Amino acid sequence: MALMGIEIIAITFLLHGMPSILKGTRVAGNVFDVCTTCHPNATCDKKTDGSGGFACNCVYGFVGNGRTHCEDKDECQIGANAICGDHTVCHNTHGSFYCTCLSGYAPTNNKAIFIPNDGTYCQDVDECQFQGICGEGGLCRNTDGDFECECQVGYRVQGGTLPFHPVREKAFCKAVDCGLPPSVQHAVQLSPLHTRYGSVISYGCQKGFLWREGDNSSVCAPEGKWRGPSLICEEVHCGEPPAFPHSSFVWDRNTRMGAEVRYECEGGFRHVGPASVAVCTAGGLWSRPSLQCEEIVCGKPPVVPNSQMLWNRHTSVGTNVFYECEEGYHKVGTGNISVCTENGLWSEVSFICKVVTCGDPPLLPHAGQVWNGSITVGSTVMYYCNGGFYYVTGTNISECSADGYWTKPTVTCEARCGHVPEIANAELVWDNESTAIHRCVDGYYSQSGINMSMCGADGRWQAATMQCREIRHGISHLEVFNERCLRWVSDGKKEDYKVVLVGRRDYQKSFVDTRRNAFNSTDFRPQVCLKLLPATNYTISITAVLASSSINITTNTTIQAAPVPEVMFRDVEGPVPTLWLHRSVHTLDPICLYEVFVLPVEGTLVFDCNSPRSPHFPKDSSCHGEYVAAQIQVRDVGKELNFTVGDEQHYGGFYNAPLENGKDYYIILRTVCQWGQNSKHSCVIWAKARGTSYRMRMSAVVAAGTIAVIGCVVLIGFFYTGYVKN
Ligand SMILES: *[C@@H]1O[C@H](CO)[C@@H](O)[C@H](O)[C@H]1NC(C)=O
Ligand SMILES: *[C@@H]1O[C@H](CO)[C@@H](O)[C@H](O)[C@H]1NC(C)=O
Ligand SMILES: *[C@@H]1O[C@H](CO)[C@@H](O)[C@H](O)[C@H]1NC(C)=O
Ligand SMILES: *[C@@H]1O[C@H](CO)[C@@H](O)[C@H](O)[C@H]1NC(C)=O
Ligand SMILES: *[C@@H]1O[C@H](CO)[C@@H](O)[C@H](O)[C@H]1NC(C)=O
Ligand SMILES: *[C@@H]1O[C@H](CO)[C@@H](O)[C@H](O)[C@H]1NC(C)=O
Ligand SMILES: *[C@@H]1O[C@H](CO)[C@@H](O)[C@H](O)[C@H]1NC(C)=O
Ligand SMILES: *[C@@H]1O[C@H](CO)[C@@H](O)[C@H](O)[C@H]1NC(C)=O
Ligand SMILES: *[C@@H]1O[C@H](CO)[C@@H](O)[C@H](O)[C@H]1NC(C)=O
Ligand SMILES: *[C@@H]1O[C@H](CO)[C@@H](O)[C@H](O)[C@H]1NC(C)=O
Ligand SMILES: *[C@@H]1O[C@H](CO)[C@@H](O)[C@H](O)[C@H]1NC(C)=O
Ligand SMILES: *[C@@H]1O[C@H](CO)[C@@H](O)[C@H](O)[C@H]1NC(C)=O
Fold it and tell me: Which UniProt keywords apply (predicted)?
């Protein structure tokens, strides 16, 4: 079968190349001429018989008489193969024929048609010369009169089988695609991804993994599958790190890539060179540290004068050199050794060799020496016990030894102390030559002190310090009588008493009365009277020292007679009578006050010194004109006070009224002391005066120790302790 497209092309070709065999109809001349009678399809040819005439001969391909008919001869009748040759088609034409080639063949004259008489024949057309006739990836194979397609390597037929005809079949070649390349454990793909046939992908092992075996590339095979890789990646293991002489290493036994090993030189060696670390590299090998351990060498040991060295002549670290003093010398200092140290130096020697002498021999307590003063080695000293001491034990000889020291004498000399000392009221419980123990006899006791006597190093007893005291009964039944005396019950033996008293007052915070007293007594009922101050609370403590007994008591004192000041009339003749008071400073001041009473002499006079504090004279009394002229707190008065009667001032809320002209008055000074419910009063007649409008005339009144009877009534309870003076 011929290809349709090819057939069309072949036909076109034939038409273009058609020879003009049909042109050139011949026309006869105007003279009859046989030739003019020739059939259009005949030629007029000179006769061949030599007659010189012309004859009509049908042209080639026609048969007939040449004049009336020339009919087409069908040359193809005899068969195309016979007339046109192989692979031909015979085309009869009017009067002729032509040949064309069968599909898949072409005439050798390179024209569309041919007449075989020029040697033209049909030869096979090589369709494969037409590029791309089999499509992409197709492989054309020419056949006799036809062709067929195979697929190139890397292509596979689609829609048919091989071989195929691209026109007649829908088959075509398609490039092989291997798809995603295979993945390999611990490997990564290195080359860019092409998945066509023949593409090569190479793999490399991941970091930390190393190629062990197999092909590290994969090829896209014609059958559309990847071939390879057979690569096997193995984790990098560097194995045991390398060892270096005189070194050790610190290693966590990690052999993977990046693992580190730190090298250290062993003792006596030091590290030379920059690095001391090996690292497990990607290639599975330990990087070589530039480690070099160099032996530390100390050189010559130090020289100690007058000594010999004991030395193995090595200079490596740890080597010891011993020093030994030469004869006649002794070592001073502790170290007799020098060691070659890690820093390449010999350790210092704190050792010197000195000429041996022993110095002064040791002294022993209570021992004397027999010594000729020699301090060279081998000299000896003898010891003996001093007088009063006796040899007990120990060696009594010391020798100057080769090391410069006296051998230690151990003589002990003990004192002879004699009789055990006696302790008053004590007996001996136990004793040996050097120690005694004492104890108080019955009825005695010891509070403190040591109960042991010891024979001292000086040969004398160190007596016990205990003191035996008689066992006593303490104080009891302590009581206060007569407000200021104490009495108690004792055991009737001689006793040292100590009295301590402390007095305080609520009304006078600054007041404190502290006193101590001591006395001896042998009474069964001792008593003591104390000078206790009035209006005071006392705490009194009595201690019996020997009986070591103590008892306390508290007691109050009452207010006694109010203290009366010293009064004087100073200016009798003056225009204003002034009274002068000189008071004795007393501790009761805070609770005492002075009151000045003015009493007319005329009429009935009643004055009670113990009357209430602010006296109100009875209204219906026949005694008129009496009044309080002033009230003055004692604590406000200094050492002395000048008071002018009738100066019209106020004193403590009382008006000091002027004295009536021509009248006689008594001026009375009262002292009042009061604490709580307890109060005491004292009165003194300060003056007798006559009133004037402006001045007072004083007539002194003095009656020592008397009770004045003035006017109508006796002054009761009128204490007089001061005096009035003109
Ligand atoms: C002569 O031959 C041609 C073809 O070759 C033909 O077409 C023509 O009709 C012929 N003439 C006559 C008169 O027969
Ligand atoms: C592949 O393996 C070969 C040895 O077989 C090696 O020489 C080459 O470097 C490897 N290629 C890659 C990319 O690892
Ligand atoms: C070094 O001194 C020590 C005591 O300090 C002693 O035991 C040792 O024998 C001495 N060595 C030498 C060589 O003198
Ligand atoms: C002292 O006594 C020693 C023996 O202990 C003796 O060798 C030395 O010569 C004596 N020295 C003197 C100066 O007598
Ligand atoms: C030294 O002790 C011995 C006993 O060990 C004694 O015989 C000698 O008399 C003592 N020497 C002196 C000097 O006391
Ligand atoms: C006496 O006794 C004391 C204490 O027990 C003891 O230390 C001492 O050595 C003794 N003395 C004698 C000479 O026995
Ligand atoms: C001596 O005194 C001690 C305490 O200092 C005491 O233990 C001991 O009993 C006393 N001995 C006698 C015999 O009293
Ligand atoms: C003494 O003590 C009593 C009671 O504590 C108290 O009421 C009184 O005021 C005190 N007296 C003095 C003078 O302190
Ligand atoms: C007690 O009497 C003794 C003498 O027996 C004497 O030494 C001492 O001073 C007296 N003490 C007092 C406080 O009087
Ligand atoms: C007695 O009083 C004193 C001081 O006030 C105090 O130190 C002591 O303890 C008192 N003694 C007794 C037995 O109350
Ligand atoms: C002191 O005396 C008052 C009465 O003046 C009395 O009430 C009080 O208890 C006494 N205080 C002492 C401690 O005796
Ligand atoms: C009171 O008067 C006398 C004599 O005139 C004078 O010496 C004294 O200083 C006066 N006292 C006061 C406190 O004024």
Answer: Disulfide bond, EGF-like domain, Glycoprotein, Membrane, Repeat, Signal, Sushi, Transmembrane, Transmembrane helix
